[in-house]
Amino acid sequence: MKNILVTGGCGFIGTVFVRYVLQDTDFSGRVINVDNLTYAGNPENLTDIESAFGERYEFMKADIGDSSAIESIFQRYNIDAVCHFAAESHVDRSIVAPDAFIQTNICGTFNLLEIARRYSDRLILFHHVSTDEVYGSLDSGGFFTEDSAYRPNSPYSASKAAADHLVRSYWKTYGLPVTISNCSNNYGPFQFPEKLIPLMILNALDDKPLPVYGEGQNVRDWLYVDDHCRAIWEIMKAGTRGATYNIGGRCELANIDTVNRICDLLDDIQPRSDRSSRRDLITFVRDRPGHDLRYAIDCRKIEMELGWSPRESFETGLEKTIRWYLDHPQWVKRVQSGEYLKWVEEQYK
Ligand code: NAD
Ligand code: TYD
Questions:
Q1: Helical H segments across the chain, by residue range
Q2: CA of 165 to the centre of ligand 1 (A)
Q3: Which domains, ranges and CATH numbers included, belong to the chain?
């Protein structure tokens, strides 16, 4: 791989992936980051990378659904590998307004696949980043494996499932060299504060209510974002073409336990002035419609085939995450106030 097209590189996981590949691996080629900068895309996440890596990092503002823009990027940069993160990613938004999820996650992926097919003579790999949510919901027992049936329950997971099927079909039908990864819930630096962990950290720091859906008994399998990015890179280097790999943290927690831990850690690191527990900010609110009860990943395939396993424990990962948000008040301020969006508008008008 010499010229990797990363889609959605200004989002949470894409940002960490671009940083990881350029800073922490022996990759010596070029990363071309294509992102259309929705509310979730923040190019400021990578300004230091832009200065440090010169021509080895390029950013292009484009929609993955724009055929001519994407095709010209394939031509101009001799793209030989794709790592596809770009998506609408928030379940709650998909419930309120599913349209963008269909456009980006399904039609956008289809457009990328079509262009990749046109350049398949030089394409080494199309890696598609997906979610465990395509498998639906578990009750208290069992795990999702790569052979679990697809049973998506939200417009978000249904759109990701559709994209997974399209990617697989391009392997079966056209021989496009693809890999797919289905990962559990990520957390870590740069995550947009609409998702559970950063939302709770920042609300708790501001003494705002911590809205826990339903009774807080829904279970998620948490994975530190660096572990996810390392897994994707291992798949890109050595994954079997046409294969799916499940990636998980072996770290199941009920939401209420996750929120309690965030409160307790914050109380240790930065106690409130009156030393009271932040747990008193927890507020149980109306449940999310169609709320999946439990996700849990069986990741033995990637462990056995590629030698990957998660390195970060939830305790250390959560502490690193909390410290990152505490150490980046400017980032938080610009994201919470929407200032980064104004900057984007100025830059790209
Ligand atoms: P994110 O919402 O933080 O970032 C998505 C990025 O895609 C943003 O930078 C956004 O601007 C960009 N984007 C959106 N629509 C686009 C379009 N039409 N054209 C170009 N760029 C577009 O999401 P994330 O949490 O970083 O997730 C990245 C990928 O990983 C997604 O495909 C998601 O389904 C998958 N995933 C996420 C998690 C998780 O816990 N966050 C878990 C498993 C899988
Ligand atoms: P989220 O971070 O939105 O990820 P996903 O829905 O993709 O799993 O939510 C994680 C869990 O936390 C999920 O069970 C919903 C719950 N949740 C809350 O209880 N309150 C909140 O404010 C949010 C955003 C999520």
A1: 12-24, 47-53, 67-77, 91-96, 99-101, 109-118, 155-174, 196-205, 225-238, 255-269, 300-306, 314-327, 329-337, 339-347
A2: 18
A3: 3-190+222-250+290-313 (3.40.50.720)
